[in-house]
Design a protein that fits this description.
By secondary structure, the protein is mainly α. It contains five helices and no strands. This is DMT family transporter.
Length: about 140
């Protein structure tokens, strides 16, 4: 149940952050906003690390394998940019729905094929049906 609640909070925070970032971009620029978001996020993480895990060394990152797993920060910058641009173009609700649809499809493919070290779960028709219904919901939402 805790995981469910955390996921709901995460989704809410992502929606709020996307709107905030888009509004800041209107008063500055996309990459200025993205840089600020990543820098303040870095500072927050650094402070939280210092308070909660300072006994854990950053040198542990040198042992991460495969090395491409360390691209999360670069992906985070791309996420910030693409969320800002999608909200500018489509608005918060439609952007969020398409983002979640994309996350659902890609996450399912990662599980089915066991990509990036994730345990392979195998294909299930009922999960595919869930994704199809989700996409159908997006089309209904868009329909005028």
């Amino acid at each position: 149940m805790l995981g469910f609640i955390i996921a709901l909070v995460s989704g809410a925070l992502m929606s709020i952050q996307g709107v905030f970032n888009t509004e800041v971009t209107k008063q500055s620029s996309t990459w200025t906003t993205s840089t600020f978001v990543q820098a303040t996020g870095f500072l927050a993480c650094l402070i939280i690390w210092f308070v909660t895990e300072k006994d854990q060394s950053f040198t542990m990152l040198l042992k991460v394998s495969p090395k491409y797993l360390l691209l999360g920060g670069m992906i985070g910058a791309a996420i910030t940019f693409t969320v800002i641009k999608s909200i500018e173009s489509l608005g918060p609700a439609q952007s969020a729905m398409l983002i979640v649809a994309s996350q659902s499809v890609i996450s399912y493919l990662i599980e089915v094929f066991g990509l990036f070290g994730v345990e392979k779960t195998g294909f299930a028709w009922i999960k595919l049906l869930g994704v199809v219904l989700f996409v159908a919901g997006l089309l209904i939402f868009k329909w005028k």
